[in-house]
């Protein structure tokens, strides 16, 4: 079946705030923090995560959210070996796994429906039917060649800084969401672009077409994994599938998938780092965090605005750069903080660019080619980004434009 643009645009899903923790072994770069420094920020994050555990947040999904039924390949990731099926009622490390077809909720009960199955709440090691265990429809990417092109490092401790003075790489995690289109309007009006780290099946997302627009308007899309799990809590197979499943979804929608990723909660230890290198991913962190996810109330978002303003005072386009992180799933970030950031970028003489551009990485290295491809038309945006858009178009124009795959486009997450 074929899906109209109106229908694609109408299907949306829910996402909740995601705290960003830090691996204790990560290098401490020149990060702009709050007044108390990185230790205080880590304490604040630890306190936040105590109320909102990374792997299994307690907040149930809104049962009234306008989500379509999930349409997947029908293939389910097997549970880790050695985990026995329990009594079919309780689940988790103490009780074992649920029966096939059931999910294991954050509080450790077997069942079905969004309250049990939404990721990352659902415990994927104990709930066979968890959203995070559902493979999307589309060709398998696990056998794809993954050459390591360019000079930007793959895997390892990750990337924290831009290399080009005067560049600000604004990035957003966890979307797309209902605010993302309006944010794209703001970027277009300012002649600016960003990088969007996209999750595929987190909190039961529906399918939307913001991904097309991001690419068409010169933005960069990158992976934030399939279902926003703590990667250090997963087996090798589970962690690989978090990347493969998102690749399948990207490929079915766009005809290609990213080589840049950001680990959920900014957690990716040594085993994860090595695996991301093997899979051909640039692990992307940040050196400027305005902490909007901690200040989502209208009375609090000014804290994040002040953090941005402090960063603008700390450096100039002549002597520095920033790799910034925020989240496009919160109204105050989308409608208050982002316009302030964009106005400030222009007023202070910075250039808002993609992560790939701020690292000096050619656009052809940002993605791996899938088949069939999709040919984007250059849209009316700032002349500053016409060359980048042309590079996008030329990179994908050679691919066979075969829309027969549109029957596969009913993927949770896009």
Concise description?
The chain has helices spanning 5-10, 37-51, 114-117, 180-189, 210-216, 236-254, 270-278, 301-314, 331-347, 355-358, 386-397; strands at 103-104, 110-111, 167-173, 195-198, 220-223, 256-258, 260-261, 282-283, 288-289, 322-327, 351-353, 367-369.
Shape from CA axes? Answer: globular
Question: How does CATH name the architecture of the largest domain?
Answer: Alpha-Beta Barrel
Number of H/I helices: 11
* Main beta sheet: 6 strands, parallel
Average pLDDT figure = 78
Which structural class best describes the helix and strand composition? alpha/beta
Which percent range fits the helix content? 25-40%
Q: What is the CATH T-level topology of the largest domain? A: TIM Barrel
Say how many strands there are: 12
Write down the domain tally.
Answer: 2
> What gap, in angstroms, lies between the N and C termini?
16 Å
Tell me the β content: 5-15%
- Using the CA coordinates, give the radius of gyration: 20 Å
Order of helix and strand elements from N to C terminus: HHEEHEHEHEHEEHEEHEHEHEH
Find the CATH superfamily of the largest domain: Glycoside hydrolase/deacetylase
Unreliable parts = 1-71, 371-388, 391-414
Q: What is the CATH first-level class name of the largest domain?
A: Alpha Beta
């Amino acid at each position: 079946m074929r899906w109209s643009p109106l229908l694609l645009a109408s299907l949306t899903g829910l996402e909740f705030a995601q705290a960003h923790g830090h691996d204790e072994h990560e290098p401490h770069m020149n990060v702009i923090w709050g007044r108390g420094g990185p230790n205080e920020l880590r304490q604040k994050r630890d306190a936040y995560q105590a109320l909102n555990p990374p792997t299994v947040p307690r907040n149930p999904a809104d049962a009234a959210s306008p989500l379509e039924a999930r349409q997947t390949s029908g293939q389910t990731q097997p549970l880790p070996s050695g985990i026995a099926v329990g009594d079919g009622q309780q689940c988790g490390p103490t009780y074992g796994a649920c029966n096939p077809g059931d999910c294991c909720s954050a509080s450790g009960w077997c069942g079905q429906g969004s309250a049990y199955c939404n990721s990352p709440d659902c415990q994927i090691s104990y709930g066979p039917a968890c959203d995070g265990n559902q493979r999307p429809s589309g060709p398998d990417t696990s056998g794809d060649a993954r050459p390591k092109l360019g000079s930007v490092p793959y895997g390892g401790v990750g990337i924290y800084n831009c290399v080009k003075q005067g560049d600000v790489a604004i990035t957003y995690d966890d979307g797309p969401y209902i605010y993302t289109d309006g944010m794209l309007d703001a970027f277009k009006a300012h002649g600016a672009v960003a990088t969007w780290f996209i999750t595929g099946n987190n909190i039961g997302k529906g399918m939307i077409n913001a991904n097309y627009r991001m690419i068409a308007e010169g933005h960069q899309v990158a992976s934030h994994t399939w279902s926003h799990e703590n990667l250090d809590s997963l087996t090798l197979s589970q962690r690989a599938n978090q990347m493969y499943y998102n690749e399948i979804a990207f490929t079915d929608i766009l005809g290609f998938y990213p080589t840049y990723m950001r680990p959920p909660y900014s957690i990716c230890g040594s085993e994860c780092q090595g695996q991301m290198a093997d899979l051909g991913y640039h692990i992307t962190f940040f050196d400027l965090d305005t902490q909007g996810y901690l200040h989502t109330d209208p009375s609090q978002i000014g804290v994040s605005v002040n953090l941005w303003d402090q960063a603008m005072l700390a450096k100039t386009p002549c002597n520095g750069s920033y790799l910034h992180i925020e989240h496009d799933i919160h109204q105050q970030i989308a409608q208050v903080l982002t316009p302030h950031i964009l106005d400030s970028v222009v007023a202070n003489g910075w250039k808002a660019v993609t992560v790939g551009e701020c690292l000096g990485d050619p656009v052809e290295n940002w993605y791996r080619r899938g088949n069939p491809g999709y040919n984007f038309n250059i849209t009316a945006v700032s002349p500053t980004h016409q060359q980048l858009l042309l590079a996008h178009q030329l990179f994908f124009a050679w691919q066979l434009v075969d829309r027969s795959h549109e029957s596969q486009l009913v993927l949770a997450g896009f």
